[in-house]
Amino acid sequence: MVQSVELVLDEASEAAVRRQWAALSELGLHTPGPWYRPHITIAVATEIWPRLDKVLAQQDFQPFPVRLGGLLVFGSRAAVLVRAVVPSEPLISLQHRLFRVVADCPGIPGNVRPDHWTPHVTLARRLKPGQFDAALGAVGWDKDVRATVEDIRRWDGDRRAEWSVTAGDLPTR
After folding, report:
1. Do 165 and 53 form a contact (C-beta atoms < 8 A)?
2. For position 71, what pLDDT does the model report?
3. Does residue 173 lie within any of the structural domains?
4. Which of 7, 14, 18, 46 could bond 40 through an S-S bridge, CB–CB 3.0 to 4.6 Å?
């Protein structure tokens, strides 16, 4: 599994994404599991060292607005449908700062490195080519969503555990 640093959205925009998940799920398309929460992934690694949580918590963070824009498809045979997050100076700056904290962790894929990162919120996974039309029909009509990034969280995929970095509720390990 993986560990990640993620940005958490406000309640209203999270609800909008969950409505899109529900529409896709009704079509039998693979949507995130019940433990999953809408988010923008900043960095991913096979392991993010626990000592870095305190460094992440020390980063300057204030909630800021973002816009969830159009649909994108990553891959082709087992594609991922996402809603793009329109890049902004606060978003790019935060991603660069947070990525620097975890840059030496093992197993970081190239697509989350600064200047190679595409900010997005995942809507559906493992789509086969024949499912694209149904997926786009289910959520393609949705308008852009004005959202607020409210928190930085850490996610541990092995334990399916999350904790807020900015709230200081760091796990004891």
Report:
1. yes
2. 93
3. no
4. 7
Q: Is the alpha carbon torsion for 33, 39, 45, 49 positive or negative?
A: negative
Both tokens of residue 82?
Answer: 């996402």
* Burial (CB count <10 Å: 0-12, 13-18, 19+), residue 26: exposed
The CATH number linked to 48 is 3.90.1140.10
Residues 6+ apart with CB under 8 A from 166: 57, 61, 151, 152
| Residue 22, in any domain of the structure | yes
State how many domains the chain has: 1
DSSP 22-77: HHHHHTT-----TT---EEEEEEES---THHHHHHHTS----EEEEEEEEEEE-ST
Predicted local distance difference test score (pLDDT) of residue 171: 61
Mean pLDDT of the chain: 90
Quick one: tokens of 59?
Answer: 């980063």
Question: H/E/C letters for each residue in 102-123?
Answer: HCCCCCCCHHHCCCCCCCEEEE
Residue 59 scores a pLDDT above 70 = yes
Q: Under 8 Å CB-to-CB from 20, ≥6 apart: which residues?
A: 83, 123, 138, 139, 142
Helix 11-26 vs helix 132-139: crossing angle, to nearest 10: 140
- The answer to whether residue 170 sits within a structural domain is no
- What domain range is 73 assigned to? 3-158
Q: Which two tokens stand for residue 46?
A: 């096979």
